[in-house]
Amino acid sequence: MYKVLVSDPISDMGLQQLTDASDVEVVKNTGLSEDELVAIIGQFDALLVRSQTKVTRRIMEAGTNLKVIGRAGVGVDNIDLEAATSLGIVVINAPDGNTITTCEHAFAMMMALARHIPQAYMKTVTGEWDRKSFVGVELRNKTFGVLGLGRIGTEVAKRAIAFGMNVLGYDPFMTEDRAEKLGIKLASVDEIVRNADFMTVHTPLTKETHHMIAKPQFEVMKKGMRIVNCARGGIIDELALVEAIDEGIVAGAAFDVFEHEPPNPDHPFLKHPKIIVTPHLGASTIEAQENVAIDVSEQVINILRNEPFKNA
Ligand code: NAD
Ligand code: MLT
Predict the structure, then answer these.
(1) How far is ligand 2, taken at its centre, from the CA of residue 256, in Å?
(2) Which residue in 95, 134, 200, 206 has a CA-CA distance of 20 to 30 Å to 2?
(3) Pocket test for ligand 1, best of 8, 71, 74 (most atoms within 8 A of CB)
(4) pLDDT tens-digit profile of 230-239?
(5) Which ranges of the chain have pLDDT less than 50?
(6) Spatial contact of 1 and 27, defined as CB atoms under 8 Å apart
(7) What is the pTM of this model?
C-alpha cells in the first residue's frame, strides 16, 4: 500500500483517481508546520502540495520513504529542487491545468485596475455615490508589455489583442516567427518599460527574474504605467514600486502575489489607494483546481507504480 500525504487544500474531485486506487491510502493533513511535517513524513511515499507548504531539505531528509513530490500547480519555487535531486526524490508539477484560469485573473486585475473597480465598490457600499474619483482609462489602443511569453503570458497577450491593445513581449525563448503569428512585437525589457501603458509579468521567480523590475526600470519608465503581477512576488521590487507610485511614475498596480505570503498586515500594498490586491487567487477556480489535481494524481500514481510518467 502506497501512502500519500496531501498537505495543502487540493480538490477532492481531482484527487479521486488516488482516493479510488486500491493500492493507495490518501491522508489529508493541511496547515502543518515544518516540525510537524518532519515528524510524520517518514510514513509517506508521496507528498502532494500546492503553494503553502514549503518543502525544505529537512522535510525531505526526514521523508525516508518519499519517492515523489507532486505540486498541484505550476511554480515549484516552494520546493527545494536541489535537495530533491540529491535525495533522488522526483518532483512533478501540473503546468497546463491552471493556464486559462490564471490568465483570466490577470486580465480581470488589469481591467479592475484600469477602472478602479475595487476602490469604487468599497465607497459605493458605504452609501457614498462618488462618480468623480473613479474616472478610468480604456485598454483599446494602449501599449501592453508582457514579460514572459509562456503558457499564461501568451494567453494574456491574445486577450489583450482582442481588446485592441498593441502588445510588446519579452521572453528569451520566444522566436520572432511565433511572436509574429501571435500578433506580438518582441521587445527588450528596457523598450517595454519605456513605452508600455500597461505591463504584466508571467515568468517564474528565478535568480534572473528576481527584481527584474526595480528602481533602475522605474527611473526610465513611461509615466502613468499600470502594472499587474499575477506570477510571483519578488519579480517586481515591492518597495521600489510603492516609491514609483508615490512619485507619480506608476499610475497603479494590481498584485495577486507577494514576496512573503501572506504579507504582514502593515505591508505598504495593503492600504495604498492605488494598489489593488488579491490573496494568490490566480489559479483558484473550480476548473483549474480539478485540472491540476487530476494531473498530479495521475503522475504520482504512475511514479509510485513504476510506470511511465511525464515530467514537465
Ligand atoms: P511557463 O513556464 O509556461 O512560462 C514562463 C515563461 O517565462 C517561459 O516562456 C520562459 O521562457 C519565460 N521566462 C523565463 N525566464 C525569463 C526571463 N528572465 N525573462 C522573460 N521571460 C522569462 O509558465 P506559466 O504557466 O506561464 O506560469 C508563469 C508564472 O505564473 C509562474 O511563475 C507560475 O508559478 C505563475 N503562476 C501563478 C499563479 C497564481 O496563482 N497567481 C497561477 C499559475 C502560475
Ligand atoms: C501556481 O504556480 O500554479 C500558482 O501558484 C497557483 C497555486 O498553486 O495556487
Answers:
(1) 11
(2) 95
(3) 74
(4) 999 999 999 9
(5) none
(6) no
(7) 0.96
